[in-house]
Amino acid sequence: MMTFIDDSSETKSSTKGAEKEPSDLQWLQQTEHHRPDKSVPFCKLFLDNWLYVVTYCGVFGSFGVCVGFLGPTVFDLGCQTNTDLKKMNWVFFVQLIMTLVGSISAGCLVVRVPVHLLMLSGALGVSLCMFFIPACSSLASLILVLIIMGWCMGCLDCLTNLRMIQMFGNNVGPFLQAMHCLYGVGAFVSPMIASAFLLNTDCTPYIDGFTIETHPRNGTGPNGTRAEPATVNTYIPPQPHRVFRYRHMSRLPSAFYILGAIQLFFAGLVVYVIFQEKIGKLKPNVGASGHHDNSHAESSTSCT
Protein backbone atom coordinates (compact mmCIF):
# COMPACT_ATOMS: atom_id res chain seq x y z
CA MET A 1 0.00 0.00 0.00
CA MET A 2 1.32 3.42 -0.93
CA THR A 3 0.85 6.33 1.48
CA PHE A 4 0.70 9.93 0.34
CA ILE A 5 1.84 12.73 2.67
CA ASP A 6 -0.05 15.96 2.29
CA ASP A 7 2.57 18.68 2.73
CA SER A 8 0.37 21.47 1.43
CA SER A 9 -0.21 22.71 4.97
CA GLU A 10 3.53 22.82 5.63
CA THR A 11 4.09 24.68 2.35
CA LYS A 12 1.42 27.24 3.20
CA SER A 13 2.83 27.81 6.68
CA SER A 14 6.36 28.26 5.34
CA THR A 15 5.05 30.66 2.69
CA LYS A 16 3.29 32.72 5.34
CA GLY A 17 6.47 32.77 7.44
CA ALA A 18 8.48 33.94 4.45
CA GLU A 19 5.98 36.68 3.76
CA LYS A 20 6.21 37.92 7.33
CA GLU A 21 10.01 38.12 7.30
CA PRO A 22 11.10 41.66 6.37
CA SER A 23 13.50 42.27 3.55
CA ASP A 24 17.04 43.50 4.18
CA LEU A 25 16.13 47.06 3.22
CA GLN A 26 13.11 47.09 5.56
CA TRP A 27 15.23 45.68 8.39
CA LEU A 28 17.84 48.40 7.92
CA GLN A 29 15.18 51.09 7.92
CA GLN A 30 13.68 49.75 11.16
CA THR A 31 16.92 49.80 13.13
CA GLU A 32 17.73 52.74 15.36
CA HIS A 33 21.05 53.64 13.75
CA HIS A 34 19.88 53.51 10.13
CA ARG A 35 16.72 55.55 10.21
CA PRO A 36 16.52 57.60 7.03
CA ASP A 37 16.67 61.36 7.49
CA LYS A 38 13.99 63.51 6.01
CA SER A 39 15.12 65.62 3.12
CA VAL A 40 16.32 68.98 4.44
CA PRO A 41 17.35 71.70 1.95
CA PHE A 42 21.03 72.48 2.03
CA CYS A 43 20.41 76.23 1.95
CA LYS A 44 18.14 76.05 5.00
CA LEU A 45 20.69 74.04 6.97
CA PHE A 46 23.42 76.51 6.05
CA LEU A 47 21.39 79.62 6.90
CA ASP A 48 20.33 78.14 10.25
CA ASN A 49 23.92 77.21 11.17
CA TRP A 50 26.01 79.59 9.08
CA LEU A 51 28.27 80.70 11.94
CA TYR A 52 29.21 77.12 12.81
CA VAL A 53 29.83 76.24 9.17
CA VAL A 54 31.95 79.33 8.47
CA THR A 55 33.96 78.81 11.66
CA TYR A 56 34.67 75.13 11.03
CA CYS A 57 35.54 75.75 7.37
CA GLY A 58 37.88 78.60 8.32
CA VAL A 59 39.58 76.55 11.02
CA PHE A 60 40.04 73.67 8.59
CA GLY A 61 41.50 76.17 6.13
CA SER A 62 44.06 77.08 8.82
CA PHE A 63 45.01 73.42 8.86
CA GLY A 64 45.62 73.62 5.11
CA VAL A 65 47.80 76.72 5.57
CA CYS A 66 50.06 74.76 7.94
CA VAL A 67 50.38 71.90 5.47
CA GLY A 68 51.23 74.13 2.50
CA PHE A 69 53.82 76.57 3.87
CA LEU A 70 56.68 74.24 4.80
CA GLY A 71 57.77 72.98 1.38
CA PRO A 72 58.31 76.34 -0.36
CA THR A 73 60.09 77.87 2.64
CA VAL A 74 62.52 75.03 3.35
CA PHE A 75 65.52 76.78 1.69
CA ASP A 76 65.02 80.00 3.63
CA LEU A 77 64.40 78.11 6.86
CA GLY A 78 67.66 76.24 6.27
CA CYS A 79 69.53 79.54 5.99
CA GLN A 80 67.72 80.87 9.05
CA THR A 81 68.61 77.85 11.22
CA ASN A 82 72.07 77.27 9.69
CA THR A 83 71.04 73.75 8.66
CA ASP A 84 71.81 71.89 5.44
CA LEU A 85 69.06 70.50 3.25
CA LYS A 86 69.62 66.88 4.28
CA LYS A 87 68.86 67.64 7.93
CA MET A 88 65.96 69.92 7.03
CA ASN A 89 64.05 66.87 5.80
CA TRP A 90 63.32 66.06 9.44
CA VAL A 91 60.94 68.99 9.75
CA PHE A 92 58.48 67.35 7.35
CA PHE A 93 58.55 64.06 9.26
CA VAL A 94 58.11 65.73 12.64
CA GLN A 95 55.18 67.86 11.53
CA LEU A 96 53.28 65.00 9.89
CA ILE A 97 53.86 62.42 12.64
CA MET A 98 52.68 64.89 15.27
CA THR A 99 49.59 65.59 13.15
CA LEU A 100 48.76 61.90 13.46
CA VAL A 101 49.38 61.97 17.22
CA GLY A 102 47.26 65.11 17.61
CA SER A 103 44.36 63.61 15.68
CA ILE A 104 44.34 60.47 17.84
CA SER A 105 44.73 62.34 21.13
CA ALA A 106 41.99 64.83 20.22
CA GLY A 107 39.60 61.95 19.61
CA CYS A 108 40.38 60.64 23.11
CA LEU A 109 40.17 64.04 24.82
CA VAL A 110 36.87 65.10 23.25
CA VAL A 111 34.87 62.98 25.71
CA ARG A 112 36.43 64.85 28.65
CA VAL A 113 37.04 68.38 27.35
CA PRO A 114 34.48 70.61 25.57
CA VAL A 115 35.06 70.32 21.85
CA HIS A 116 35.19 74.06 21.19
CA LEU A 117 37.83 74.58 23.87
CA LEU A 118 39.98 71.93 22.23
CA MET A 119 39.36 73.53 18.86
CA LEU A 120 40.34 76.92 20.25
CA SER A 121 43.59 75.53 21.66
CA GLY A 122 44.43 74.03 18.26
CA ALA A 123 43.54 77.16 16.28
CA LEU A 124 45.40 79.42 18.69
CA GLY A 125 48.35 77.03 18.79
CA VAL A 126 48.97 76.98 15.03
CA SER A 127 48.73 80.78 14.91
CA LEU A 128 51.24 81.28 17.72
CA CYS A 129 53.60 78.75 16.17
CA MET A 130 53.57 80.77 12.95
CA PHE A 131 54.61 83.84 14.93
CA PHE A 132 57.40 81.91 16.71
CA ILE A 133 58.98 80.31 13.62
CA PRO A 134 60.93 83.48 12.62
CA ALA A 135 62.57 83.44 16.06
CA CYS A 136 63.99 79.92 15.58
CA SER A 137 67.75 80.16 15.07
CA SER A 138 68.54 76.43 15.24
CA LEU A 139 67.08 73.20 13.92
CA ALA A 140 66.22 72.01 17.44
CA SER A 141 64.11 75.07 18.19
CA LEU A 142 62.35 74.80 14.81
CA ILE A 143 61.54 71.13 15.41
CA LEU A 144 60.16 71.98 18.86
CA VAL A 145 57.81 74.57 17.36
CA LEU A 146 56.73 72.15 14.62
CA ILE A 147 56.00 69.46 17.23
CA ILE A 148 53.51 71.80 18.88
CA MET A 149 52.13 72.92 15.52
CA GLY A 150 51.70 69.34 14.31
CA TRP A 151 49.75 68.36 17.42
CA CYS A 152 47.47 71.38 17.01
CA MET A 153 46.98 70.53 13.34
CA GLY A 154 45.84 67.03 14.28
CA CYS A 155 43.34 68.50 16.75
CA LEU A 156 41.86 70.76 14.09
CA ASP A 157 41.64 67.91 11.58
CA CYS A 158 39.81 65.61 14.00
CA LEU A 159 37.51 68.09 15.72
CA THR A 160 36.20 69.96 12.69
CA ASN A 161 35.23 66.75 10.91
CA LEU A 162 33.69 65.40 14.12
CA ARG A 163 31.55 68.47 14.73
CA MET A 164 30.30 68.59 11.15
CA ILE A 165 29.21 64.94 11.30
CA GLN A 166 27.62 65.40 14.73
CA MET A 167 25.64 68.42 13.60
CA PHE A 168 24.33 67.34 10.22
CA GLY A 169 24.28 63.54 10.32
CA ASN A 170 23.40 62.05 6.93
CA ASN A 171 23.05 65.56 5.47
CA VAL A 172 26.72 66.35 6.12
CA GLY A 173 27.96 65.72 2.56
CA PRO A 174 27.89 69.28 1.15
CA PHE A 175 29.35 70.72 4.34
CA LEU A 176 32.27 68.29 4.39
CA GLN A 177 32.93 69.09 0.74
CA ALA A 178 32.95 72.82 1.52
CA MET A 179 35.26 72.30 4.47
CA HIS A 180 37.78 70.29 2.46
CA CYS A 181 37.56 72.88 -0.31
CA LEU A 182 38.72 75.49 2.21
CA TYR A 183 41.54 73.14 3.18
CA GLY A 184 42.70 73.16 -0.43
CA VAL A 185 42.37 76.95 -0.59
CA GLY A 186 44.54 77.30 2.51
CA ALA A 187 47.19 74.93 1.16
CA PHE A 188 47.14 76.83 -2.15
CA VAL A 189 47.25 80.36 -0.75
CA SER A 190 50.02 79.91 1.84
CA PRO A 191 52.81 79.17 -0.70
CA MET A 192 51.63 82.08 -2.84
CA ILE A 193 51.86 84.46 0.11
CA ALA A 194 55.25 83.09 1.14
CA SER A 195 56.69 83.26 -2.39
CA ALA A 196 56.59 87.07 -2.34
CA PHE A 197 59.07 87.12 0.55
CA LEU A 198 61.38 84.19 -0.27
CA LEU A 199 65.06 84.47 -1.12
CA ASN A 200 64.91 80.81 -2.27
CA THR A 201 68.65 80.20 -2.04
CA ASP A 202 70.11 76.89 -0.86
CA CYS A 203 72.66 77.64 1.85
CA THR A 204 73.87 74.03 2.08
CA PRO A 205 77.17 74.65 0.16
CA TYR A 206 78.02 77.53 2.48
CA ILE A 207 77.14 75.54 5.60
CA ASP A 208 78.96 72.27 4.82
CA GLY A 209 81.54 73.57 2.36
CA PHE A 210 81.87 72.42 -1.23
CA THR A 211 84.42 71.22 -3.77
CA ILE A 212 85.27 72.86 -7.09
CA GLU A 213 86.74 70.78 -9.92
CA THR A 214 89.12 72.65 -12.22
CA HIS A 215 90.73 71.42 -15.45
CA PRO A 216 94.07 73.11 -16.26
CA ARG A 217 95.04 73.89 -19.82
CA ASN A 218 96.59 71.12 -21.91
CA GLY A 219 100.36 70.97 -21.93
CA THR A 220 103.10 68.95 -23.67
CA GLY A 221 105.11 66.19 -22.13
CA PRO A 222 108.93 65.91 -22.05
CA ASN A 223 109.01 64.09 -25.43
CA GLY A 224 106.74 66.62 -27.10
CA THR A 225 103.65 64.46 -26.63
CA ARG A 226 100.36 65.98 -25.53
CA ALA A 227 99.74 65.44 -21.83
CA GLU A 228 96.32 64.47 -20.49
CA PRO A 229 94.71 67.25 -18.43
CA ALA A 230 94.60 66.54 -14.72
CA THR A 231 91.54 67.40 -12.63
CA VAL A 232 92.26 69.56 -9.62
CA ASN A 233 89.78 69.47 -6.74
CA THR A 234 89.68 72.59 -4.61
CA TYR A 235 87.80 72.42 -1.32
CA ILE A 236 85.99 75.59 -0.28
CA PRO A 237 85.42 75.65 3.50
CA PRO A 238 82.11 76.70 5.11
CA GLN A 239 81.34 80.38 4.83
CA PRO A 240 79.27 81.49 7.84
CA HIS A 241 79.37 85.11 6.73
CA ARG A 242 77.50 84.25 3.52
CA VAL A 243 74.89 82.27 5.45
CA PHE A 244 74.48 85.25 7.77
CA ARG A 245 74.12 87.53 4.78
CA TYR A 246 71.47 85.38 3.09
CA ARG A 247 69.59 85.03 6.36
CA HIS A 248 69.22 88.79 6.65
CA MET A 249 68.41 89.22 2.98
CA SER A 250 65.38 86.95 3.31
CA ARG A 251 62.07 88.59 4.20
CA LEU A 252 60.53 85.29 5.33
CA PRO A 253 59.39 86.54 8.78
CA SER A 254 56.88 88.84 7.10
CA ALA A 255 55.26 85.84 5.40
CA PHE A 256 54.87 84.00 8.69
CA TYR A 257 53.38 87.05 10.38
CA ILE A 258 50.77 87.37 7.62
CA LEU A 259 49.87 83.66 7.76
CA GLY A 260 49.73 83.76 11.56
CA ALA A 261 47.40 86.77 11.48
CA ILE A 262 45.03 84.94 9.11
CA GLN A 263 44.94 81.95 11.43
CA LEU A 264 44.45 84.20 14.45
CA PHE A 265 41.30 85.59 12.85
CA PHE A 266 39.74 82.12 12.66
CA ALA A 267 40.77 81.43 16.24
CA GLY A 268 38.82 84.58 17.11
CA LEU A 269 35.77 83.10 15.38
CA VAL A 270 35.99 80.07 17.69
CA VAL A 271 36.10 82.43 20.68
CA TYR A 272 33.00 84.20 19.36
CA VAL A 273 31.16 80.87 18.97
CA ILE A 274 32.03 79.89 22.54
CA PHE A 275 30.85 83.28 23.83
CA GLN A 276 27.56 83.08 21.92
CA GLU A 277 26.90 79.59 23.27
CA LYS A 278 27.66 80.71 26.83
CA ILE A 279 25.07 83.48 26.73
CA GLY A 280 22.55 81.16 25.08
CA LYS A 281 22.22 82.96 21.75
CA LEU A 282 23.69 80.19 19.61
CA LYS A 283 22.98 76.49 19.28
CA PRO A 284 22.87 74.03 16.37
CA ASN A 285 19.59 74.00 14.43
CA VAL A 286 19.63 70.95 12.19
CA GLY A 287 15.96 70.02 11.97
CA ALA A 288 15.32 66.42 10.96
CA SER A 289 18.97 65.41 10.95
CA GLY A 290 19.45 66.21 14.60
CA HIS A 291 19.20 62.65 15.93
CA HIS A 292 22.89 62.05 15.12
CA ASP A 293 23.96 65.15 16.98
CA ASN A 294 21.79 64.36 19.99
CA SER A 295 23.17 60.86 20.40
CA HIS A 296 26.76 62.10 20.35
CA ALA A 297 25.99 65.04 22.60
CA GLU A 298 24.37 62.78 25.20
CA SER A 299 27.33 60.39 25.16
CA SER A 300 29.77 63.28 25.53
CA THR A 301 27.75 64.75 28.40
CA SER A 302 27.62 61.44 30.21
CA CYS A 303 31.38 60.98 29.85
CA THR A 304 32.12 64.47 31.13
Automatic annotation (TrEMBL):
Spans annotated as Disordered: 1-26
Ranges that cross the membrane: 50-70, 90-110, 139-159, 180-199, 255-275
Keywords: Membrane, Transmembrane, Transmembrane helix
Keyword set includes Transmembrane: yes
Keyword Transmembrane helix: yes
SUPFAM superfamilies associated with the record: MFS general substrate transporter (SSF103473)
Record protein name field: Uncharacterized protein
